[in-house]
Write a structure and sequence with these properties.
With 158 residues, this protein is α+β, with helices and mostly antiparallel strands. Helix content is 22%, strand content 37%.
Length: 158
C-alpha cells in the first residue's frame, strides 16, 4: 500500500513539475537542446478575444502543456486525423488535431496521457464547443501560410 502511495506521489510531483515548466512560457524538450516558444498566455488572450467577438480570423499559436486525453484515429472527408487534448492552463484544455496523412510520424497514437507537448498550429474558434488547434503538420497552403508541428516529450512530429 505504501509503495502505491509513494508511486502516486512521485507521478503527481513529476506532472506538477512539468506543468510548472509550461507556466514559464518556455518548453525545453528532454531529447534536444532546442527550446520551443511556448506562448500559452497569448493563446488564452486570443481565446478570450474570440469569445468576446473581438477577433474572428484563425490565429497562429504556440502552446504547450500536459496531454489529458487521446482519442482513436478518425477518418474524415479530409483524411485520417489524430485527436488529443492538452491542458495549457489551470482549467483550460484545448483539442489538438493532427492530419496523420500529412505528418511524418509513426502509427497513431504517438502521444499518450501525461506526455509533455509543445504544439505549433492554427487556432480555430467556431464557438465554445467547437474550437481547437489544427494545421499541426509541415505543409502550408494559400489558406494557411504557416507550417506547424507537434513535439511530444522532446520528439518532433511534422
Amino acid at each position: 500500500m505504501s509503495f502505491v502511495l509513494l508511486g502516486a506521489a512521485l507521478m503527481l510531483g513529476t506532472a506538477a513539475q512539468a506543468q510548472d515548466n509550461y507556466v514559464t512560457g518556455i518548453f525545453a524538450p528532454a531529447k534536444s537542446t532546442t527550446t520551443y516558444p511556448c506562448n500559452d498566455a497569448q493563446f488564452l488572450q486570443d481565446q478570450q478575444a474570440f469569445e468576446n467577438g473581438q477577433i474572428t480570423a484563425d490565429q497562429p499559436e504556440d502552446v504547450c502543456g500536459i496531454v489529458t486525453s487521446v482519442l482513436p484515429e478518425k477518418k474524415t472527408r479530409s483524411g485520417h486525423h489524430g485527436y488529443f487534448y492538452v491542458q495549457v492552463a489551470s482549467g483550460v484544455v484545448i483539442e489538438i488535431v493532427s492530419d496523420l496523412d500529412q505528418m511524418s510520424a509513426p502509427k497513431w497514437p504517438w502521444v499518450a496521457v501525461g506526455d509533455t507537448t509543445y504544439v505549433k498550429g492554427r487556432y480555430y474558434y467556431d464557438n465554445m464547443d467547437s474550437q481547437g488547434i489544427d494545421w499541426t503538420h509541415h505543409g502550408t497552403s494559400s489558406s494557411w501560410p504557416y507550417a506547424g508541428y507537434v513535439v511530444v516529450n522532446g520528439t518532433k512530429y511534422q
